[in-house]
Design goal:
Elements: H1 3-6, E1 10-14, H2 19-34, E2 38-44, E3 58-62, H3 68-71, H4 76-86, H5 88-100, E4 107-113, H6 119-125, E5 130-134, H7 138-141, H8 147-152, H9 186-201, E6 206-208, H10 212-226, E7 230-232, H11 254-259, E8 267-271, H12 280-293, E9 297-300, H13 319-322, E10 327-330, H14 335-340, E11 344-349, H15 353-362, E12 366-368, H16 374-384, E13 389-391, H17 399-411, H18 413-431, H19 438-456
Parallel strand pairs: 1-2, 1-4, 2-3, 4-5, 5-6, 6-7, 8-9, 8-11, 9-10, 11-12, 12-13
Helix pairs in contact: 12-17, 17-18
């Protein structure tokens, strides 16, 4: 279908207000805008994206209805659960207004983050088709529909005595790798996941920031379990479109100028994403492990990363000075630029899916230290299935083990072999976006699917 024929159709997108969810949704919006659709974003006035960075989109802000205590909680699951309750009416009112004013440009469908499970009932009330975007790997999401079985078999809730036991239904995962999070009320987590799965199954299709060649077994399995169309059109960020940053934190460009002074494939880039929190003891083991490795390192220490500290206060006096310029520490970095830099030789990551995909697309080996939920599955597949990284598996971080992992990746034969494998995956990821590639074809299929939903909705 020609792009001109799609003009006059608008899409409404609804992101979950966390950095790792906002980024891929705005990248998807940019991709679909390039295909001729008009884009409206409904966003909560919490971690709001900057509309001025995306002048081609229309933005509508709605209230989150949270108290100050609720909005500042570090319990992400409780926060998501509350947002699914308190945003129903503001979202319904905003969507009603958009639909009533969309006479010249009918709304083809809603594209919602899958974690906003309440959006299905609201969209259905307006007879508006709803697609969902899942911002994790298909492999990790594939475990969620099996939660009832995993509970029945005693894998869940996780018991310390069974951590090393193989989950026979999901090899090579062990019990410790299951995509869960430690919290006081574990039932609340299971209930949220159950709702996300059931409301995703009731959607008109599922969009993935992945590519078929990387995750075909998981995609095939989910297609059978959910019985809805699947659209693995990633990697989103490699479509080479005019895309502005959606970072909620200021990106320190000194990261790039410092990398420019370093030898090729020499730097360890370290970043644990936007949500992880470290103890002071863990922070110090990381610091000494990096220093003792004698490799140059670029380290993102997000304000609030270290429990009880604002920024770098736990570092010993003279630590940075004694590095002699071999380490560079910033509050936030332009990650895609950093990973694409020739100086970067490895990425120590929390194994969030955006970071994992960005790393694969630049052919950079990974050191994985996951925190929770999908990150644990991603780390296992990076280190044991795709074999493009190594994993720090011990629960307690130890500087000697950190140094050994860095040495393995940067100086030993195993590191060379990993670098070769991830380079091949990089080529595969970029090829799938070219004409005739799997993601290219799935994007065409997605565009036609949206078009048919829009016409049936007129």
């Amino acid at each position: 279908m020609e792009q001109q024929q799609r003009k006059g159709l608008r899409l409404v997108l609804f992101p979950l207000p966390f950095q790792g969810h906002i980024n891929p949704l705005l990248e998807l919006a940019t991709i679909l805008h390039s295909k001729g659709f008009s884009i409206t974003l409904i966003h909560i006035n919490f971690n709001s994206p900057n509309p001025s960075n995306h002048p081609h989109f229309t933005f509508h802000s709605i209230s989150h209805g949270l108290s100050e205590t609720e909005a500042t909680t570090s319990d992400a699951i409780s926060l998501i659960t509350l947002l699914n309750i308190k945003c129903v009416e503001p979202f319904r009112e905003c969507l009603a207004s958009l639909i009533s004013n969309a006479l010249d440009e009918p709304i083809a469908c809603l594209i919602s983050d899958a974690m906003f499970h309440f959006s299905r009932a609201v969209a259905e009330n307006f007879k508006l088709p709803r697609l969902v975007i899942r911002t994790t790997s298909a492999t990790s999401f594939g475990v969620f529909p099996a939660f009832p079985l995993l509970l029945e078999k005693g894998y869940l809730p996780i018991q310390d005595s069974r951590l090393e036991e193989l989950v026979v239904e999901f090899p090579p995962l062990k019990v410790k790798d299951l995509p869960v999070i430690k919290m006081r009320d574990q039932e609340k987590f299971y209930e949220l996941i159950s709702r996300v799965v059931s409301e995703t199954k009731a959607s008109s299709g599922l969009i993935w920031n992945t590519f078929e060649e990387l995750e075909q077994p998981a995609l095939d399995s989910l297609t059978k379990k959910l019985s809805i169309p699947m659209f693995p059109i990633g990697p989103f960020h490699k479509y080479n479109l005019a895309y502005s940053s959606s970072s909620l934190l200021a990106e320190d460009q000194s990261s790039i100028s410092w990398l420019n002074t370093q030898p090729p494939v020499s730097v360890i880039y370290v970043s644990f994403g936007s949500l992880a929190v470290l103890s002071e003891a863990e922070f110090l083991e990381i610091a000494w492990g990096l220093a003792n490795s004698e490799q140059p390192f670029l380290w993102v220490v997000r304000p609030g990363l270290v429990h009880g500290s604002e920024w770098l206060e736990p570092l010993p006096n003279g630590f940075i000075e004694n590095l002699g310029g071999r380490g560079h520490i910033v509050k936030w970095a332009p990650q895609q630029q950093v990973l694409a830099h020739l100086a970067v030789g490895a990425f120590w990551t929390h194994s969030g899916w955006n970071s994992t995909m960005e790393c694969i697309c630049e052919g950079v080996p990974m050191i994985c230290r996951p925190s929770f939920i999908d990150q644990k599955v991603n780390a296992k597949f990076v280190s044991h299935v795709w074999n493009v990284g190594v994993q720090l598996e011990d629960e307690i971080l130890e500087r000697g083990e950190i140094e050994r992992m860095i040495t393995k990746l940067m100086k030993e034969k195993e590191g060379e072999e990993i670098r070769c494998r991830v380079s091949k995956l990089k080529d595969m990821a970029l090829s799938c976006l070219k004409q005739g590639g799997s993601s290219y074809k799935y994007l065409d299929s997605l565009v036609n699917h949206i078009q048919s939903l829009g016409h049936s909705n007129l």
